[in-house]
Each structure stands twice: as structure tokens, then as C-alpha cells.
Amino acid sequence: MNHLPQGWGRPRDDVYGAYDASYLQNSGPNQHTQQPVVTGTSVVALKFKEGVVIAADNLASYGSLARFTDVKRLRTFADAAVVGFGGDVSDMQYLDRLLTSLDTEEAYGTTGHTLNAHNLHTYLSKVFYKRRSEFNPLWNQVLVAGVDQEKKPFLASADLLGTTFSAPSLATGFGAHLAQPILRTLAPDEEAAAGLSKEQAVEAIKECMKVLFYRDARSMDKYSIAVVTKDGIDLRENEKLEAQSWAFAEKIRGYGTQVN
Amino acid sequence: MFRNNYDNDSVTFSPQGRIFQVEYASEAVKQGSVVVGLVSKTHAVLVALKRNAEELSSYQKKIIAIDEHLGLSLAGLASDARVLSNFMKQQSLSSRLTYGRAIPLERLVSAIGDRAQTNTQHYGKRPYGVGLLVAGVDETGPHLFEFQPSGMTQEMSACAIGARSQMARTYLERNLEKFADSSREELITHGLKALKESLAQDKELTVENCSVGVVGVRAEGKAVIEAFKLFDGQDVKQWVDLVADGTEEVAEGENMEVDA
Amino acid sequence: MTSIGTGYDLTNSVFSPDGRNFQVEYAVKAVENGGTSIGIRCKDGVVLAVEKVITSKLLKPGANKRIATIDRHMGAVSSGLIPDGRHFVSRAREEAASWRKVYKTPITTSDLANRMGGYLQAYTLYSSVRPFGITAIVGGWDSERELPVDGQVGSGPSIGAGGKVEGKKYGGPGLYMIEPSGLYWGYYGAATGKGRQTAKAELEKLDLAAGKLSLEDGVKEAAKIIYIAHDDNKDKEFELEMTWISGLDGPTKGRHEEVPKDILEEAERLAKKALEGDDDEEEIKEEDKPAEGDKMEE
């Protein structure tokens, strides 16, 4: 018998071979973020004639747990742009502070700052690309909404890989599957988006938020919505979904008390 | 020149609070041939007098293009100017890469100012022996900045530095009110006239010894600019002829018809 | 200064036999030649003002700002070597940013003054550098209410962060002046540069310690003081530049901003008017006593 207590209850060396102690060391290679932890779900946005409407709900999930219910995922950048964050919330906070310091630095100059939504999107995409090239990505997909140098509506996305994309309507996460088709029927191209009024665009975005709440289990019915034009930002952070109807769900297996 | 104990390095104050090494560096600027810069509401112009070391040698480059939207002219140690202009090119490029934005002039000029200041506060460094006039346009319109070896940078309506530049400055002061509303051609003509004031008695302006740099906004409020362009040799003939000795009396009059 | 020429004044960081650091004193001389800067700590904010002597007609009017923003809630102005002032400002901005990175909250005015005092003092310690040829005035507003942490996404607990003493007032205006030696004090009213003696005399008349002067009146007083302090060298033209920081409920909402054009012009008009009235009476003579506060051990 082995007299040493640390050997008791372990696989016998004469049967299984000596334990490879290197597995006990935790001085392996550095591991960076390999998955998001606390997450926000979809962000949806749509261009219209004078600007962009953007929205995201106020939920931060911890896996399937609805962990934080008052999380503001639309962040403003100095009256010039709104950034909507999907993905990891702590990385969003890091980026938000990064944008705050960028805003402060821009305001040093006597002419005030001149970064527009387009410049901001370029900057964010470079930050994302740099971090992913270091194998230490910021786990987000963001939508940048605002106006460009010519005061025309600007909307583009950037993600953890440094990928960029621009379209008259955009959505991240589940929204890319559920909201994007709705928005595309309304605004299939830039020309169609330029024909939309603010009211039409807001209406469409609200409809998308509702559909997302119906079908996305990591969403909630409180959300933030912002309208960005050349004149500034109108941000509302405590909106509630209106006129919900769950009638459609009666036909779906697993809803309510149904069993089959 | 008087010898004093306080002028051996740039980390020693004199009892009056002066730093002689920095003041001497400013003298190096006065050794360089004269350069003139001036701005209107739409354009920024640099004109420079080039020198050749001997009959058969080439003329020293006096104007350097930095980016599409700005350039500089130098008086003093050309190699110091090259160090600074390379730095400015890097900064300009990095702004375009990171933000997709032409760097604001004030920021770029402050950056070289800060660099130059460091050289006046640490032992083993020497102040830059060069003065610069930086001309360009950004989102807030055309600008002209003067840079001095002390690290001092100032935004000017018009300026001249280099050998015998006092005469050019007197011309600029006398005609200051005319510049703001001058056309592109008028502005260049004013620049050359100011330059001419500073010529040594036996010298005259020729296509060989004259450089002109022009940058401008194409139309007020337009995003597209007239990119910085350097004119040398036969390209400056049109303007040199205009200010040639015979025509001077006519052109000096109130109703200047330089546009042709 | 009797010890000039004995060799103890040629190098920074060297004491003379009677315990002085001459290079620091000479740096103060550079300050005394610069345009006048002042700061006034009012009950509901801070004003900074500077006399910008126009050295050339060719300077672009209204450009070339001398009062810089350190962080959103803080500004600085200096007299002396202008490039040294820019160095001061960029370091102060780095300090404010690094504070934010660590604590996720804006730096207080006193903490910034402390850090910059340390920075300037370090430039008196080595023969390989020279002291700063500036005296800087830093003004700021420390939030009187609980601020969200930088990057905060939710509302947090409704009782706030805690650690607050009931009934005690937090935050408020801050004004500090930092000298080339690294020495700094908090002030109700601070003045430096060429016209500092006159400006100080005027500041003392305001009874700032009573804490009654409002920010709006402070702006007018600041303009007046710069005009009076300038009066000594009438021949040179100057521009007045002013910035202010109010509380969260005031006109700047806790931010450091330029005083709006209309308010600035009104203050200048009143200043000129007050000056004309003064000229009829007796003129205020500037005492020409040696500068105080240029010794390091104070």
C-alpha cells in the first residue's frame, strides 16, 4: 500500500503509468478571450432621408440568464454618431471608454472636433482588426450610425474580425436573420432608403424590435432607440415594446401549457 | 559677438530668463533664403526664393508637399526640415489610415511644435535650426502656420521668414486687408511681390530661383479640395512675368488686373 | 543677485553656498516677462483669463488660443515660455487620461495640481534638463454629484456608491497655481506674468475668500483685471482670452469652455469703461519689489 496520503484514491502508477505532472501547471501559453461572457443581442438600424434610426434592447445576458436588464447598448459619440453594440458587454465598456477618450482628445483643438460617423467607423474597424491580429479580439459587432462629411446619412458595421460592411439597413446577431429581411423589403437599396421619412423608419425599426422579442430568447421588451441626423442625436433609452400580440404563438409547440 | 557663460547649451537659463541656444537657433533661420506664405478665404499660398551654392549646382528645394491638403516651406537647415517633414508625412498618413480623415492642420503643427520644445529642455539635444511656414486646408478652411526653433507655432494671416524677410513682412502688413478676398492668382502675385521686396539689390526673380506652392478649397463648403501643388521652373513663368520689373508700377495700382 | 558669476548659477540642480537654486530663479524670470494670466475661483465656477500681447500684425486675430483644456472639466493657462506651456498642457492631459484609465472617473483639480507639481519639481532635480519657464494656473470643477463610472452601462444600485458622509458637501470649484520649482498652492484668485502685482492687488479687493462672487460677475472682474494689469504697458495691443467652468447646473454644465462671444464682449466693454473711469482718479502704482515665491523650500 502507498503510505503517502496524496497518492490515495488516485489511479495506480503500476496500472496507468505515472501521472504527467505537467498537466497540473497553469503556466501554459497565454489565453485570450475565446468566447463572450456577458452579452448583448441584436442591434438594428435603418437609413432614411435625413439620417439613421438605430435600436437595441436593454438586456445583458449571462448565457441564457437575463442577468442585467438596464444596460444601455447605444452609446453616443459627441453629437456626431451613435454606436450600437452587440456581443460582449465588458468589451463594449472598454470601447466606450476608448471613444470617450477619443472625444476628449478631439475637443482639445480650438476648432472643436471634426470626427464624423464615417471617421469613427474607420477607427473602430482598425481597433477591431488590430486586436484580432493579436489573437485577442474585442468580442463585438457594432453598428455606427450618423452622417458623413457631406452630411449624408451614414450606416456601417464593424465586427470582432475587423470586417466592415455598409448597407441602407443593417442588423447584428439574431437581427441579421430576423430583422434584416423586414428592413430589406422596405429599403432594398440606397434610393429606397432615401425615400423614407423619419416616421416610416422609426416605425419599421420598432416593428423589428418586436419581432426580435417574439423570437429571440436572449432579448427583452425594454429597448433604446436613437435617431441621428446632421442636427444631432435624439436618444431614448427606456422605451417599451407596444402592441404585442402573442396570438401567433398559440400555434407553436412548447408555448404556454401545451405539451404536444 | 559677445561671449557669455549662459549660451553653451539649451538647458541653461540666463539671469534674465533667456535661453541663448534657442535664440541662436532662430538666427539659423535668418541664414536661409526668404519664404513667404499667405492665405485668403479660399486658398493658402507659399512662395520661396531658391538659392544655388554655385553656378553649376542645382537649387535648394524650399517647398515640400506633405499630403494632399498641405505643404510647407522652410528657411534654415534643410536637413532639419526634412526630419520634421518626414514626421509630418507619417502623421498625415496615419490620420488618413486610422480615421479616413485629412489631419487637421493645427494638430499637425502642434505635434512638431511639441517635438521641437523637447529639444530645448534636454541636455545633449539641440533646437531645430529651421523655421517653417505650413500652408494647407482642412475642414475649417485654409490655414497658414509659422513654426520656430523654440517650438513656438502660431497661426498667421500672412508671414515671411528667412534672410531679409523684414521687407517682405512690411509688404504683407501693408496689404493685409486685401488678402482675405483675393483670388488664387491675386494671392500668388501678392506673395511674389512680397518675396521681391526681400531680394538683394543685384537679384531678381527668375523661373530658376522661384518656387510656388498652392492649395485651396475648390468652392466654399465643398468637400473636394484643390490639392497642394508645387510649381517650379517654366510653371512659374506666368506669375514671375507678372511681377517683373517693368510691370511693377502698373500692378501696384489699386485696380490690379492680374487674372487675365 | 550677488552670486551671479560665481559659477553656481550655470547648472540646474546645483545649490549655491547660501542654499539657492539659481536656474529655478532664472526660470521664474522667464515667467515674469510673459503676458498676464489670472484665475478666479467663484462660488459656482472658475474663470481663467489671459492677456495675449499681439507681437505682430500678421497674426491671425482670434486664433492661437492660450488657455487649454486638460480634461472636459478642467483648463489651464500659463505665463512664460509658450512652448513650455504646451509641454505642461500635454503632460497634464496625459495625467488626466491615466487617472481616468485607472479610476474610471475624472481627476480632481487638486490631484492634477499635485501630479503636475511633482512633474515640474522633477525638472529641477537634474543637470540634464532645465526647469519649466512657466507658471501655470489650473482651474477645474469637481462634480458635486455622484458621476457614473466611465463606461458604466446600467444605473447601478439606487443608493449610489456609498462612502458619503451625510450632510457633507462634495466637489466644487478648484484653482491652483504651479511655479517652475514645482511649488503649488490652492488659490481664491491667482495671477502670474508681467502684470501679476497689479492683478493681485485687484484680486485682493474682491474678497474672494467670502465665497460670494458669482461666476457671471467673476467673468466681468477677470476681464477688468486683465485690462487694468495691461494698463502698465499701454503701447502694446493685446487680445483677451477667457474660459470658464461652472457647476453641473451652471452655464457650462461642469465643462471647461470658452466664454461665449457675447458675454466676453460685454465683459470687455465694462472693463474698458471701468478703466476710463479709473484714469481720472489716481493711477495704481505697481510695487517693484523682488518676486516672492521663487525659493524652493517654501
UniProtKB/TrEMBL annotation, chain A:
Coiled-coil regions listed in the entry: none
Keywords from the UniProt entry: Cytoplasm, Nucleus, Proteasome
GO biological process: proteasomal ubiquitin-independent protein catabolic process; proteasome assembly; proteasome-mediated ubiquitin-dependent protein catabolic process
InterPro entries documented for this protein: Ntn_hydrolases_N, Proteasome_beta4, Proteasome_bsu_CS, Proteasome_sua/b, Proteasome_suB-type
Subcellular compartments: Cytoplasm; Nucleus
A GO CC term assigned to this protein in UniProt: nucleus
The organism's place on the tree of life at top rank: Eukaryota
Biological role stated in the UniProt entry: Non-catalytic component of the proteasome.
Similarity field: Belongs to the peptidase T1B family.
PANTHER family assigned: METALLOPROTEASE TLDD, PROTEASOME SUBUNIT BETA
Name by which UniProt lists this protein: Proteasome subunit beta
UniProtKB/TrEMBL annotation, chain B:
Pfam families named among the record's database cross-references: Proteasome (PF00227), Proteasome_A_N (PF10584)
Localisation per UniProt entry: Cytoplasm; Nucleus
Transmembrane segment boundaries: none
GO cellular component, one term: nucleus
Cross-referenced PANTHER family: PROTEASOME SUBUNIT ALPHA/BETA (PTHR11599)
Subunit structure, as described in the record: The 26S proteasome consists of a 20S proteasome core and two 19S regulatory subunits.
Residues of the Proteasome alpha-type subunits domain: 6-28
The keyword Ribosomal protein is assigned to this record: no
The protein's name: Proteasome subunit alpha type
Gene3D superfamilies cross-referenced by the UniProt entry: Glutamine Phosphoribosylpyrophosphate, subunit 1, domain 1
Taxonomic superkingdom: Eukaryota
UniProtKB/TrEMBL annotation, chain C:
Biological process per Gene Ontology, one example term: proteasomal ubiquitin-independent protein catabolic process
Protein name (database record): Proteasome subunit alpha type
Sorted UniProt keywords: Cytoplasm, Nucleus, Proteasome
A GO CC term assigned to this protein in UniProt: proteasome core complex, alpha-subunit complex
Positions of the UniProt region annotated as Disordered: 273-298
Top-level taxon of the source organism: Eukaryota
Entries under Pfam families matching the protein: Proteasome, Proteasome_A_N
Ranges for domain Proteasome alpha-type subunits: 8-30
Main location: cytoplasm
Subcellular localization(s) per the UniProt record: Cytoplasm; Nucleus
SMART domains: Proteasome_A_N
GO molecular function terms listed in the Swiss-Prot or TrEMBL record: mRNA binding
Biased amino acid composition, Basic and acidic residues: 286-298
Organism: Oidiodendron maius (strain Zn)
PROSITE patterns hit by this protein: PROTEASOME_ALPHA_1, PROTEASOME_ALPHA_2
Subunit structure: The 26S proteasome consists of a 20S proteasome core and two 19S regulatory subunits.
Family according to the record: Belongs to the peptidase T1A family.
